[in-house]
Amino acid sequence: MTNRKGIRRHEALQPLSRHHMMGLHVGLKLSRAGTEESNIPTEQIIEDAMEFWCLGGQEHFREEEEVLLPAYALYEDIHQPDIVEMLLEHVLIRSGMDELCRGNISEEQMGELGELLHGHIRKEERILFPMIEAALPEEKLQELAPYLHD
Fold this sequence. Notes:
By secondary structure, the protein is mostly helical. It has a single domain, classed as nmb1532 protein domain like (Four Helix Bundle (Hemerythrin (Met), subunit A)), CATH 1.20.120. Helices cover 73% and strands 0% of the residues. It has 5 helices and no strands. Helix 1 packs antiparallel against helix 2, helix 1 runs antiparallel to helix 4 and helix 2 runs antiparallel to helix 3.
């Protein structure tokens, strides 16, 4: 799979990249909530974000944390700023999505969450996934494939 930037993603990571595409759309909707740029009612944005989160978002984070990063740690030092930042952003996004699901979020906070989610996904696609693909041998990437889902 080749993304819009022409980056070819290893087939094992393609399910995560496809899920990232959905996350980018949700992030954009959230970031525009309550603004003139949005033609989508806030209630619909919340519903779309909850659906994204409950039907794969949480699992997506788990796969990155419990499958991808442990595999990476076998080949490279995991104590890198990009990895630490990824994990911290996972915590912040989880927290924001939990508040959204509870109905405890303002449009301003939705905007901040959307920007965080959007930027986080961009970093994973542009920095982290290429770093992981370069570090893991082909056989290890193939071994991971059954554990990574859309």
